[in-house]
Amino acid sequence: TVEVTVNPTALGFTAVAKNKNDVVTVPTGYTVQIGARLGDPITGSAAAYKNDGTDTGFANRIGDHGDALFWFGLSTTGTRDETSSTRGLIVQNHENINQQYLHTAGATSPGGVRPEAEALKEIECHGVSVVEYSEGASRAWTFSSTSTFNRRITPNTPMVFNGPVKGSDLIKTPYSPTGVAGRGTINNCANGYTPWGTLLTCEENWAGYFRRSGDNAARTAKELTALSRYGVTSSTGSYGWSTVVAADTANTTFRRWDARATGASALADYRNEPNQFGWVVEIDPYAPTSTPRKRTALGRLGHEGCWPGKFVAGTKPAWYMGDDSRREYLYKFVSNTAWVATDATATDRLAIGDKYLDAGTLYVAKFAADGTGSWIALVFGQNGITAASAVYPFADQADVLVNARLAADVVGATPMDRPEWTAVNPVTGEVYLTLTNNNAALRPLNGTDAANPRHYNDPYGTAGTAQYGNPNGHIIRIKETSTESLTFTWDIFAFGAGADLDATNINLSGLTADNDFSSPDGCWFGRATNASGLVKPIMWLQTDDGAYTDVTNCMMLAAQPGTVGDGGARTITNTGTGGATATQATRIGAAPGASLKRFLVGPVECEITGVDSTPDGRTLFVGIQHPGENGTPAAPSSHWPDSQATGTAGATIRPRSAIVIITKNDGGVVGL
Ligand code: FEO
Ligand code: CA
Ligand code: CA
Ligand code: CA
């Protein structure tokens, strides 16, 4: 093991060039290993994955679209050990599916009645996986396909509701007439953690899975307002699962995806099924038979992530949450209970979750032009959130939490350019929020504000197609006195842009060929200290399919950011269609220069999402999501990870989402 400098001043690798190769590219001096992939058996009761569309039994396999992941250490005897860097559990979200590769010749009857077996496979490819990993000789990492910790959580896994919404009429369903339980979790995107050893998984774009059609007359005006605000408006549901009615006489697995108020027949009333989703869900990975708990005090959104601020004994802890849609908001939940450090080692972990996560205050962020901001409480009876609200007549706090977006509308929160991951600098406590992009339709030239300041046309993407708005996104950061603070200061850490774009008004962070990027999404700070004494953490930044995919595959960058206010005020000139211009004042952090470098480029048509390391920082785990997402079963557009070794693979080999394991050849900390 090489020594690393305490508080290192520079990233220690040569930037990777942008590229469109069908491999994961990392800097010279690093090695990529492939971890668990879509379909790999993990419970000892599934056959080897054939990857030809005939595989079944996905409740016993790795799901599709691996997303956020988190390392939970295990001792050599298989008990919780947060310091372990050689054996642990990786808990990963499975956000969505590449439907075409799951079936022999693509989906059967995609717009009609779906075959039961195909629909079940698609449902079970969603959710969360828990898999045990360990490091062997010569730094070779393997995962166990039979560990007793291994687990799949799917949209069918029983769960319970905790917090203020438990028992509310709004979540009563045929499955749980008393509104205390539900089934499963879906579209799990980013995540968060607790210091007591549990994972927080977040339900993001759940709304689209539901069919909702033809029942307006049976709905109240309130219900219709809420359904519209949350986008539960599909007339089919994403994959048509509710069409599998013939085989679903008990109305359990498939019919529930039709959120009809009353059917034409004796079909059960699933009007509240969409209210079962949009939550933060706590999972205890060390207790494989435990029932996950939906923490309703944190509100119902299109939850991207739920990252905690610094835990300080005697101070109420907070979790920061993006709501990923264009013009949605940034939230924070502050517990009612001040942090007691000894709770970190309690053994009834979900009971500790009850203590901190079931009672508290949900706030939404309002950004002011002068570089300050405030958190506005979403509490029934306060700030206009009442039965008399013209936006939506709230009944009680459960109604406020189920319809948190509407409460945030009432208080005048700041709409953002698609709030994705939150990350917290573990040294300074500053909170970073990726704003992946926005478009002219939802945020026109005159719709900018200081926190969402750019409007321009990006020449990349589909040739000849104008992309006005903020197609490359930015990363905003906030500084608070403590997690309990109701005010903050903010600036913009970096703006995405091609290095060749206008440096005065578009490439505002002075990005170069070594660090230019678009559509920031995943964001995570490495651990504050490790065995080598590292105290200045690296921030890892991951990109989603954006306006840059004609130039390069998606990527991951490393940064060593400064602090809020290290730059200053600035006024830029925006340009809209027809050459119209408008000025906008904003607050921009110091240009990152060489403290921001591209570390990794992924394979064709992937998104890079999900990152964690072992506590010593010497092994980095990264999620490669949906390679080849635009291909067909007959002609896949990526063959990764089979293509990793040579850049090519058989022309009909199907791509698979997978975890990559990255180590530095000299044994040191990844990135330094
Ligand atoms: Fe699932 Fe917001 O990305
Ligand atoms: Ca994401
Ligand atoms: Ca995204
Ligand atoms: Ca994507």
From TrEMBL:
Region (Disordered): 627-649
Ranges of compositional bias, category Polar residues: 640-649
Lineage: superkingdom: Bacteria
Protein name: Secreted PhoX family phosphatase
Biological source species: Sphingomonas kyeonggiensis
